[in-house]
UniProtKB/TrEMBL annotation:
Pfam family, any one: JHBP
Record-stated family: Belongs to the TO family.
InterPro entries reported for this sequence: Haemolymph_juvenile_hormone-bd, To_sf
Family annotation (SMART domains): JHBP
Protein name per Swiss-Prot or TrEMBL: CG10407-like protein
GO cellular component: extracellular space
Signal among keywords: yes
Keywords tagged on the record: Biological rhythms, Signal
GO biological process: circadian rhythm
Amino acid sequence: IASFVKVCHRNDPNLDMCARQSLLAMKDLFHYGIPELFIPPITPLVIPEIKMDQDSGAIYLHSTFKNITVNGLANYTINELHINPKKMRLTLVMSVPKVAMDAKYVMKGKIMMMPLMGNGDFKANFSDVELSTLITAERYIKNNSLFAKVKDVKVQYSIGNAELYLSNLFNGDEALGERMNTFLNENWSSLSNELRPMMETSISDIVRASATKIFDTYSFDDLLP
């Protein structure tokens, strides 16, 4: 494993503290990405595309977001970090004071019985964001070495406040677009609750992909000797 990574030992009684110190020591590196750990730059974090299809509850919506940039993630604070080597579980809770997101969007459907259609720029500012990640894995042998395989990844989040803006709604009808943006901002919390399961699944898939690459490359003894 890369020399700049502070390696922790699984039998260390202070394993959680060691892991926290290791993660904090790499904080500046996250800005530019850590190729050795398959971690992309997070200033900004660039996500090529996310598709969301929701047809239950108060939302019937088909949307695609492309060229997504997310800023602010590097200003994270670790609220909780726990590693259980025997059960192969990692729990990480982080908070970020402000997150800004920009993307190109295509959207069509209904929100709370109101039609929504647009194709343009999406901008969002979130504050007091908390992310909770639980990764579970299982052991297996490869090339006579002990490896870990991702079994499940579950990411949950909460948002303190949100400001949203979508350009070119309703084929550029400014009056309708302004009313819809006002409606979205007044009801962002209810909308967030409706969209949360789908968004948490999308984020979990991204985390799973990175964790899988790390576990496939480094043995369990490399990661936690």
